């Protein structure tokens, strides 16, 4: 089955429950030792409602979202912007739209958004080849 179907430009959504374990383990795995990613009291003192995802984790989740839905795609670039924090206990829902399918000699682009109840946590594009 071909990956790029013009009649199906929307990728299936992905709902991810964001647990404290996810936040802490991915922060440590990316060598991000900032206390707001593993110490709830410190995060609250600094104005958050709980610990929250770091940007490296968010970038990895964006990549996973695209490659899980388009397994034949090779990621060539990710350009994202962070919005609202994604806290422990949130559900992060990813959606994506194929903006431009890859053509011979030209990469494709996928517009991706990750939202929580508070709004857009991440928006951006993923550049792919197949």
Give an overview in words.
This protein is α+β, with helices and mostly antiparallel strands and 130 residues long. It has a single domain (10-129), classed as Roll (Thiol Ester Dehydrase, Chain A). The chain is built from three helices and five strands, in the order βαααββββ. The protein has helices at 20-29, 40-45, 55-69; strands spanning 10-17, 74-82, 91-100, 108-116, 119-129. A five-stranded antiparallel beta sheet has the order 1-3-4-5-2, with helices on one face. The protein is elongated. The two termini are 13 Å apart. The model has no long low-confidence stretch (mean pLDDT 93).
Largest sheet: 5 strands, antiparallel
Strand content: 35-45%
CATH class: Alpha Beta
Helical stretch count?
A: 3
Residue windows where pLDDT falls under 50 for at least 5 positions:
none
CATH second-level architecture: Roll
Q: Give the beta-strand count.
A: 5
- Dominant shape: elongated
State the domain count.
Answer: 1
Q: H/E series, N to C?
A: EHHHEEEE
CATH homologous superfamily classification: Hotdog Thioesterase
Q: Mean pLDDT, nearest integer?
A: 93
Strand order of the largest sheet: 1-3-4-5-2
């Amino acid at each position: 089955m071909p990956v790029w179907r013009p009649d199906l430009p929307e990728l299936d959504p992905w709902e991810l429950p964001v647990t404290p374990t996810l936040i802490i383990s991915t922060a440590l795995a990316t060598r991000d030792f900032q206390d707001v990613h593993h110490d709830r009291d410190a995060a609250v003192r600094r104005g958050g409602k709980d610990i929250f995802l770091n940007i490296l984790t968010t970038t990895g989740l964006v990549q996973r979202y695209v490659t899980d839905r388009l397994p034949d795609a090779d990621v060539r670039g990710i350009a994202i912007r962070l919005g609202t924090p994604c806290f422990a206990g949130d559900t992060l829902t990813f959606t994506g739209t194929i903006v431009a399918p890859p053509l011979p000699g030209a990469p494709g682009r996928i517009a991706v958004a990750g939202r929580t109840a508070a709004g857009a946590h991440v928006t951006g594009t993923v550049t792919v080849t197949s």
